[in-house]
Sequence to fold (955 residues):
Amino acid sequence: MEGIETKIRETAKALFSEKKIDILIGHEKGSLVFHSRPVMIRDANDTERLVWNSFCTNNLAVYLPRFFEPKKPKKGEVPPPLPRVAVIAKGCDARSIIGLVRERQVPRQNLIIIGVPCEGMIDKSKLEKLLEGDFIASGSIKDGGTSITGFSGKRLDIKKEQVLLDACIECAFPVVEDADIAIAGTSRKPATEKYKTAKSFSEKSPAERWRYFAQEISKCIRCYACRQVCPNCYCKECFVEQTNPRWVSAGDDLSEKMVFHIGRVFHQAGRCVECDACVRACPVGIDIRTFTQKVAQDVKEMFDYCPGFSPEVSPPLCAYRLDDRQEFITEP
Amino acid sequence: MKQGILTLSELTKFIELLKTSYKVFAPVKKEEGVFFEEVNSADDIALGYYNSKLPPKRLFLPQCEVLCTFENGQLVEIPIADEKCAIFGMRPCDALALSRIDMVFDKEDLKDPYYLARRKNTVLLSLVCDKPLDTCFCTSVGGGPSSGDGSDIRMVHLGNRLLLEALTEKGESLISSAKQFLKKPKQSDLEEKEKIVAESEKKVPRIKVDGIKENLEKGFNLPLWSAIAERCLGCGVCTYLCPTCYCFDITDEVKGEKGKRIRTWDSCQYPLFTLHASGHNPRPSKTERMRQRIMHKFFYAVENFGRTFCVGCGRCVRSCPVNLDLRESIELITGNKACVSTRK
Amino acid sequence: MENPYIPYPVTIEEITIENEARDLKTFKLVFDRKEDEEKFRYLPGQFAELSLFGKGESPIGIASSPTEKGFLLFTVKRAGLVTSELHSSETGRKIGVRGPLGKPFPWERMEGHNIVIVGGGFAFTTLRSAITYILHPQNRPKFGKLMTIYGARTPGELLYKKDLEIWSKDDRIELHVTVDKATEGWKGREGLVPNIVKEVSPSPKNAIALVCGPPIMIRFTIPVLLNLGFAEDDIILSLEMRMKCGIGKCGRCNIGARYVCVDGPVFTYKELEGLPAEY
Fold:
């Protein structure tokens, strides 16, 4: 891990000194134990802040659209040139970035994707569960193991593999395919069993699935954190906030909450890369992963499509082919 | 009766007694964390908890509240909730937060009947904090692990028993009604309480908050705001989890000829919050909205009510998906380090 | 305890289309219950939340004066969800009125002074209330000279044409009406409001100015008044903000530590200068 961190800093420093970029989005040390957080670097001297560890979970693609929003220049003035942005990307981040390129939110030629080999990120909530509700007071990582001490003084030594994010355990694409600069190192092997979470959900009866969905969604407090952290949710006006027509009410009726979540998951169909940023952001612990992965699995099975590659290919729900199935319209 | 000792073996009967007159809410441990829920018995209560995931303010200011209904174009007033509730085991920071919200909702000429009815009908038993986290900073913002503001009874966990102290008339009458389960506190009990409180106060981390109001007054246009807000995603989790945040939206929801006017939680971090019908937005970007949040809590509230509207519970620090740390922002402002766009 | 979230039931008695573009209408509202009318004691400068059940509420300045008994007047521009619904309403429809809200013009302070009223566009509504109030025989002696400068984009966009007609013949008020761009048949002044103020040059001596208009008009009128010698404390403005509760609780209409719905919407220029420029 340290080797990779040093290489990231060197790469960043070189990009700035060679004046190849204006901004670099990466990770820096957080203010709490076992936290890393996004950082925007604009100067070669600040590249020392960049870190790489098992807590670099944030999907940095979410910051890209704002740098490329069209700006109306003042009369007679030429619009300022678009910035050149470098992004530290894991496999999931890179697929989000390609998705944004495909949807024309971000120009590929202004991006430098720095692909980093990812061995998987640690799930802090799994650590806290092992501490049985206690919070992590201090901790350290070495040699594939994690040692944590809770505020009660309880100490645990755990294997890293036990506490990785589900998104990482089930990750099918840990290697960045379209990196402009590939940092050398070993990545995780792709998961052998694909869509594990979705499969176990599919095995339940429809009534059980509905009950689980209702149970999870009833926790929702309509904070929209899931939407805000998602790189794909860049709509200027979200359907849930439209007033004319008013599709969804702001109240706490279960049906209204369900409409929001069903709408969001289906708007992600063929676009979601299963980075689980939404799951981590949710303050009430809704199991969004089960639903997003289910839809992703359905898209793969029905259309043989997986998002995050080939920006020139239209995703299934944005394309119309003459041989598309339509018997469900004509023979319901 | 103003004080009493309740041994934990009697807690079940105490809760049963409470349940005869009140709906009892207490911290309950769930898979996702601790939440304030209605409890059936003392067994459901997570007495040794740190703090709840969501602040208990939702018991007074629910995420969705019906203000009135209408039918065929005519307004129908609804009865204001008058259920008696008891909240058992709220932390002092959350109780202090309620006394802050009281200042806004209980103004002389403009009172909020829904919130105030709930406050009037609820008896609050707060639990002195003996396990502050590294994200707490209550002592820096006018609070403390044994603060009594906002609560009716203050409880301290002393090993196998709880020391109860009435802080208001409501608390006194509750303690008197439960005297069959309570013993007179011994001097050693009171001394143990002082010891626990003193230790707790020492453990709570402190942040440099001196001069924050004056610095904010002068610092409206400082470039450091865009540095502070840079990685913010506008997700609003900080405001939803904050025990002193109370901003809301009012919308009408219709089904056929009937409808209701509801009040729902809203956040100053959302762009639609201040968007005019003309399209003009006084707070068009995250920078302005982040500045508004910090200004409101540490300057405007002090100007209007003489109190900081932050109780140092640390929920925003712990739950921010991008680790935006309010404490760092405060210290940047009080340290008044002039910022360039990547802060030092 | 009176519930400040519950509006009084009122009925639309009359609707007047005020302008050529037909997006400004004046609604004459009558209280369903006499006791509500008695409770609704207001002064010019205040506003109320017009409540359309099923759509929401909209904060609108009160255009009638408290000296006009038996009804309330609101002039509303069609802009969003609630105002569109109001515009498509017919007389006889029952709606709600919540108020009066906000602080009025500083009437106590204004007594004994000359009053200079400067209005532009459809922000003139509360100024109509002020003028009608001052011109009432019981009130007129309390004030000195009354001058009004009112401008709109074109003659068709002028509000309250009947009132303007009456006031132009009233020698208790010096009225100057102007348009940005004259059309055929217009015999009045032509020129932007700030320029007309400069031309007319009202004296600042013992005078208080009430200024209401679109932001751009205010931006250019204030320097003219300051140059003429008006003190910052004697220039009174009325602000607009997105509002929901109207009673200082929902948190959205603040400028710095002041809430436009309870500390305003009326502010002196001096007060505004002391607030952050976030409106």
